[in-house]
Amino acid sequence: MEPISPLEQALHAARALVLADLVAGRAAEPDVVSLVEDSVVQRRWWVEQWPEGAGYVAGLVAQDVQDALLDRYGRWPLCPVCGGGEPHALEVEPELGPDPHWVCHKAGVKVAPVGSLGSATGGTGSS
């Protein structure tokens, strides 16, 4: 068996992190998981063109899925920090960088690393 390339490792890790957040938010329906797979396919090409960007793939896949969900279903993930007012989605920061986090710009706080929303929401986030 051949070792897994760093590109494939980055893509598999990104997939796992975003799926973990979708599961935490109870949003991991089959059609939503397909959105993750679509993003991973697109990001594979992107990372093949720019191998130094492999560390950025998790944040990019999270943003891709968030954008696709907004178009089809609405905001995701909803902020678990702000209790009152209009529900709003978290954002990924940095937009293009390593160690991506879900951030609430309204409260000005990092909520959780991408892949760890379950720890911030108790595993019961909104979809």
Describe the structure.
The chain has four helices and three strands; from the N terminus they run αααβββα. The protein is mostly helical. It has one domain. A three-stranded antiparallel sheet has the order 1-2-3.
Low-confidence region ranges: none
Shape verdict: globular
What's the SSE pattern?
A: HHHEEEH
- Report the structural category: mainly alpha
User: Which value, in Å, is the CA radius of gyration?
Assistant: 14 Å
Beta strand count: 3
Give a short account of the largest sheet: 3 strands, antiparallel
Helix content: 40-55%
Total helices: the number is 4
Q: What strand line-up does the widest sheet have?
A: 1-2-3
- Strand proportion, as a percent range, falls in 5-15%
Number of domains: 1
Overall average residue pLDDT: 91
Measured distance between first and last alpha carbons: 39 Å
Task: Give descriptors for this structure.
single chain, 127 residues, mainly alpha, three-stranded antiparallel β-sheet, 3 strands, 47% helix, 9% strand, globular
Task: Give a short overview.
Helices cover 47% and strands 9% of the residues. The chain is built from 4 helices and 3 strands; from the N terminus they run αααβββα.
List the topology elements.
Elements: H1 6-24, H2 30-49, H3 57-72, E1 91-93, E2 101-104, E3 109-113, H4 117-121
Antiparallel strand pairs: 1-2, 2-3
Helix pairs in contact: 1-2, 1-3, 2-3
